[in-house]
Amino acid sequence: MTAMLLAIFTTPALAASPATGYFNQGTDLYKAGRNSDAIDAFEQAIKHKERAHEAQDLVDRIRKETVERIRNRALTGVNKNSWQTKFYFMNEVDRRIHVGISVQEVFERDSLNFRPGAIDALYQLAAMFAKADAAHFELELINEINNEGTPDPTLTTQQLTAVFSYLSLASRDVLPKF
Questions:
Q1: Among 48, 80, 82, 174, which has the highest number of CB atoms less than 10 A from its own CB?
Q2: Cα–Cα distance measured from residue 100 to residue 112, given in angstroms and rounded to the nearest whole number
């Protein structure tokens, strides 16, 4: 009876043979999209000191990808896979450049304060603007959170003005030095 119970609770992901090993099994499971089973196999590889450093790197990678998937699921139809950074995307068609900037990534919640990393990303974007001499730019703030109400139009206007002002000053290299 106990042998039967043990067979029921043993998952195929953790039944690695010495020939294949836990690390290889974890790699195969990860490639198959079975992330939870892959983590279990990689943790067994770590426990058995089988390419432990590589296994830990892959566990960290899978967890990071999982968090990113969960985060993206909360977004409203915005597919950030084609974005240049998590802060913005930029598309060019017929010398017209459309730039979408994430409100959630650039600004602290419901404020005009820039989040960490946003200034660097906006500065890089401004440098691209400076290189594209006669191009026409369209700037759009993208609210990624699916909230029931509409965003505060006054705050949205202020945020758009703050981004536009920063990009304008940075692209002309006239930002004040502190």
A1: 80
A2: 17
